[in-house]
Specification:
Helices cover 25% and strands 24% of the residues. By secondary structure, the chain is α+β, with helices and mostly antiparallel strands. The longest helix is centred in the middle third of the chain and has 14 residues.
Length: 460
Amino acid sequence: MSAETDFDPDVMGMDHTTVTGWGRTAPTAAWLIRPRTYEEAAAAVRDCGARGGIPRGLGRAYGDAAQNAGGSVLDMTALDRVHAIDADGGTVLCDAGVSLHRLMEVLLPLGWFVPVTPGTRYVTVGGAIGADIHGKNHHVSGSFARHVLALELLTADGEIRTVVPGTPLFDATAGGMGLTGVILTATIRLQPVETSLMSVDTERATDLDDLMARLAATDHRYRYSVAWIDLLARGAATGRAVLTRGDHAPLDALPARLRRDPLTFRTSRLPATPAILPEGLLSRTTVGLFNELWYRKAPRARTGRLQRITGFFHPLDGVPHWNRVYGRGGFVQYQFVVGYGHEDALRRIVRRISERRCPSFLAVLKRFGESDPGWLSFPVPGWTLALDIPAGLPGLGAFLDELDEEVAAAGGRVYLAKDARLRPELLAAMYPRLGDFRELRARLDPSGVFVSDLARRLSL
């Protein structure tokens, strides 16, 4: 055991192990600690050693936000109690280690749904707040922290503080990547639903301009909206896409056989992705073939299809360990946003990715609504594009650096919860409240108890 720690492994689960993000790049070694009580969490923070500690949920941040080389990583998933549900008022009080999957299991039969969900339900409530996650409904509902009524935060001095919206500490914690403290509990406002099915409309867009025009003209009709975009298509088809939008299906939209049990939470799972896959499986050829088939099989226009919640929001959750498909080298998920009025920047970036022939089959375009108050929250009103790229693609680092410059010049930003390689000198231009965040951290945590690989890399 490291001389820098005073942990008793018989009292608290603790292992020295390699930790990585969902993208499986840049792994680092750390002490992984699994507190089972709030008292154990406080002890872990108090004694985490010279290299500090960082809270971690289910490990779905793509980059290095929940890693801490040579220090401690606090796995908060054992703190997973649902304390209270107000089924009349639509709120839930739960531990930060509770997953969105568990909340759906508990809440859907009562006629409630989580207010915001990303592309996976296997994220914790604490992670959802720390990354201030967004979903397909940001243009309507904003990001996750907008629906948090209060949270309990364990800070570097060992105090547990009740933090509410509208305060500097809340705004630093929402999107603060775990660097203000350990979230212990949260009270969340929920979304009412009549069924566990979605009513979904699907259509094809012939190119990027067609896609943006459809989104801008009709997104206000839908609670949820997302477009899969073919980033290998070139020429007149550059940016062609499949646009999928919908809302929670009302009870009267269900056939009689489904109305008898309309709020059942149904999931499905496919076999897990093998631990070892052939290198080069995701080549430009194979991804190009997949993209062509995916675009062609999509209906030109279809309305009102009933779909399970899990199929609409979380199709990849049905494939355990799908991140292995990129091979041992892992992958980079690159997500940026540029504001409305900067559509030319989006066009240039999509064209450059297409010409570069980046083999990405998981690429989505969405529209963001109003900004959220978190100082490091990612969404701003505009267009956001996210894409997965094999990390071993030759010249990828330099290419993404060039895209960062384009994004920053357009007043945009990259998403820190997915970042693994942003240059620190661009951060202040992308996040204007960065100085406020650093100043609050310095006052709240002068000894640097909370730290991560991301924080060191970007001098957060």
